Each structure stands twice: as C-alpha cells, then as structure tokens.
C-alpha cells in the first residue's frame, strides 16, 4: 500500500452535472491528479407536502435552500410547472454558490447567501433581514440536516417550516468504487477531500482498512465536516471555509 503524491480524492455525492467538474478542473490545472468516489445517494420524499406549501406563498416570508438537492426536490415537486411568481418577491436564501446557481437556473429565484459557506454564516445573513421577515421561512431539506441554522435564527424570532424532502443513504457501490480507484487498496491518494459529515460516516469502515491512514491528508469542506472527521480521530490537514473550487485549492496548497 503506497501513497500517490499530488493525487486528490474527491469524496462527495456525485460529480458535477455540468460538462466539466469545476473542482476537478481547478485542481488539474494546479497540477494535481484528481479521482472521484461517489459517497452518497438520495431518495426524495414528502414531495406532496412540499407542493401544498409551495402553493401558499402568502403564508411565508421566503424559502431557504441549503443544498442543491433541496432545489432539485422543489423542481421535482412542481413537475415542470413554474414556481409561483410571488416567491420571487420574497426573502429567499441559499448556502453557497452551487446552490445559488441551482435556485437561479432551475427555480428562477435570485437568492441571498451565495457567499455563505455554511449554515452558521447563512444564519447571520437571514438575521440581518429579520425586520422584513414576518412569516415563517419554508425550509425544504434533507434528513441529516443539523439544527444550527434553525436554532440561531429562532433565537432572533424567525420561525421556519421544515419539510424533509430527501434522505441521504450510502452509495450502494461505494466500496467497489474505492477498490477500483485505489487498485484494490494498493495506491492511495495523498489527499482525501470530504464534502459532508455523512460522507465521513459512510466511508469510515473503508478508512479503517488503510495501513497508511496516518499519511493521508484529510481536507474538510466546512466546519461541520471538520467536526465529523475529528470525531473519528482523523487528523484534519486543512478546512475549506466555503464550498468552492478556489477555497478547496487554497486549503490544499496553503
């Protein structure tokens, strides 16, 4: 078992749906060899419940999307119908650039918060608008969400109406993919980049099989993923504070 220097393993839900994965592109241009393992799969649920709420925009001050998947659930709920235009006049929020682009392109919503890299920072953005928020914020999300965002804005008098619209489960071929990209555990990338706490949880049994684990440089996207790695007693080499290719590259090379 050996370490492949300057090789980066991206452990995330899936490669970008765009023709070119922006993370891979930036890292490749910087001289890294990039590999992917899909860690997660998603199953949509409660879409009828979400649909009923989307038909009642006057009951809400806006909507919160913290992941691209929550935007996809909203689009799937509408089944090619256009989102009621009244939503576009409300206080709508996202975490990160990727979710912002999905909300803009798929739902026509120009949301605040694309500069925020995590729930805590988005909470600050929302709290700044608290005088304009008189009704709850609709919050379609996944089953593994933390309570950081909802707790912080609740303390400022802002309510949310949460709907669990997807479940996160391990990729059914996760270990097979890992065996394939590591040539049956013989060639291990120098950098392991984790995009979510669930990715850490779902791959930990694989990590335990690696005799070179102390030589791997673990990179976390965001503080929540950092906490997940540390909870497994894995040394975090660096943290990208925002889920962007530029922030990831900075975390790796600094």
UniProtKB/TrEMBL annotation:
GO biological process, one term: protoporphyrinogen IX biosynthetic process
Pathway: Porphyrin-containing compound metabolism; protoporphyrin-IX biosynthesis; coproporphyrinogen-III from 5-aminolevulinate: step 3/4
Residues making up the signal peptide according to the UniProt record: none
Keywords linked to the UniProt accession: Heme biosynthesis, Lyase, Porphyrin biosynthesis
GO cellular component, one term: cytosol
EC number: 4.2.1.75
Catalytic activity: hydroxymethylbilane = uroporphyrinogen III + H2O
CDD domains for this protein: HemD
UniProt-listed SUPFAM superfamilies: HemD-like
GO molecular function, one term: uroporphyrinogen-III synthase activity
Keyword Lyase: yes
Pfam families: HEM4
Domain Tetrapyrrole biosynthesis uroporphyrinogen III synthase positions: 22-249
Top-rank taxon, per record: Eukaryota
Free-text function comment from the UniProt entry: Catalyzes cyclization of the linear tetrapyrrole, hydroxymethylbilane, to the macrocyclic uroporphyrinogen III, the branch point for the various sub-pathways leading to the wide diversity of porphyrins. Porphyrins act as cofactors for a multitude of enzymes that perform a variety of processes within the cell such as methionine synthesis (vitamin B12) or oxygen transport (heme).
PANTHER family named in the record: UROPORPHYRINOGEN III SYNTHASE (PTHR12390), UROPORPHYRINOGEN-III SYNTHASE (PTHR12390:SF0)
UniProt similarity note: Belongs to the uroporphyrinogen-III synthase family.
Name of this chain's protein: Uroporphyrinogen-III synthase
């Amino acid at each position: 078992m050996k370490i492949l220097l300057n090789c980066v393993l991206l452990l995330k839900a899936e490669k970008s749906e765009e023709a070119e994965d922006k993370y891979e592109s930036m890292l490749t241009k910087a001289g890294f060899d990039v590999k992917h393992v899909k860690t997660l799969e998603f199953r949509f649920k409660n879409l009828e419940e979400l649909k009923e709420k989307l038909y009642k925009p006057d009951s809400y001050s806006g909507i919160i999307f913290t992941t691209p998947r929550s935007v996809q659930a909203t689009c799937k709920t509408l089944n090619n119908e256009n989102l009621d235009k009244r939503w576009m006049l409300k206080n709508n929020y996202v975490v990160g650039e990727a979710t912002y682009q999905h909300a803009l392109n798929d739902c026509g919503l120009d949301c605040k918060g694309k500069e925020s890299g995590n729930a805590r920072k988005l909470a600050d953005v929302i709290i700044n608008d608290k005088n304009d928020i008189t009704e709850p914020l609709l919050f379609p999300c996944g089953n593994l969400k933390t309570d950081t965002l909802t707790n912080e804005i609740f303390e400022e008098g802002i309510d949310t109406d949460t709907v669990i619209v997807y479940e996160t489960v391990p990729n059914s071929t996760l270990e097979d993919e890992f065996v394939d990209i590591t040539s049956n555990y013989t060639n291990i990338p120098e950098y392991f980049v984790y995009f979510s706490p669930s990715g850490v949880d779902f791959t930990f049994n694989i990590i335990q099989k690696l005799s070179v684990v102390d030589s791997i440089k673990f990179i976390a996207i965001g503080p929540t993923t950092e906490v997940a790695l540390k909870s497994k007693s894995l040394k975090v080499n660096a943290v990208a504070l925002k889920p962007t290719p530029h922030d990831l590259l900075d975390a790796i090379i600094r």
